[in-house]
């Protein structure tokens, strides 16, 4: 009786898993078709939502069948380990192992198909969100795009102005430093000259005398030249 129940559940699981795999394949194909017809948002969206509900329903049904088959296998294991069937123990263990292998294969296939379905749905949801963002950006008004472009240009102009101002300030600071350095050098030279003049007063007085004699010689030479010129003019007219 337990073997009959196990075979019945295995047949149901086999049919359910085939339908479940077809659902996942058709879901992927529908999503691909939606990608090609993304501008129309009526039928593809409805089909996608109905397939999502069908997926959830079939997943629950398959999980329930797997739970029932697991319970049947546990009952068969208890019967095999019970007393009174020693002569049939080897055959029963072989049958139990075969049913366990079938259960393991069905469980693995179910989880693999479910994981693939969830991965496809998650990827398509992400791509759909990206497409919506792209469409919303493309559907933006030209005025906003123009305004954004003008703002970017104005921002670039402000950055260029700031850079020029910083360069001008740097040049002014360097000029100020050079002038300060030159001023210090001139003050140093003046102080040295004053020190030399104060240290050698005789030299200073000698220089002053030389300057006075030079000025006097210049005056005498000028007077002589003037007198000679006047005499030449008088001689020329007479």
Automatic annotation (TrEMBL):
Residues 28-47 are annotated as: Disordered. GO terms for biological process: endoplasmic reticulum to Golgi vesicle-mediated transport; inter-Golgi cisterna vesicle-mediated transport; protein transport; vesicle fusion. Coiled coil: none annotated. Keywords: Golgi apparatus, Membrane, Protein transport, Transmembrane, Transmembrane helix, Transport. GO terms for cellular component: cis-Golgi network; Golgi medial cisterna; Golgi membrane; SNARE complex. It holds the Pfam family V-SNARE_C. It is a single-pass type IV membrane protein. It is found in: Golgi apparatus membrane. InterPro entries: Golgi_SNAP_su1. One of its GO terms (molecular function) is SNAP receptor activity. The chain crosses the membrane at residues 219-237. It comes from the Eukaryota. Its main location: Golgi. Involved in transport from the ER to the Golgi apparatus as well as in intra-Golgi transport. It belongs to a super-family of proteins called t-SNAREs or soluble NSF (N-ethylmaleimide-sensitive factor) attachment protein receptor. May play a protective role against hydrogen peroxide induced cytotoxicity under glutathione depleted conditions in neuronal cells by regulating the intracellular ROS levels via inhibition of p38 MAPK (MAPK11, MAPK12, MAPK13 and MAPK14). Participates in docking and fusion stage of ER to cis-Golgi transport. Belongs to the GOSR1 family. This is Golgi SNAP receptor complex member 1. It comes from Panurus biarmicus. The gene is Gosr1.
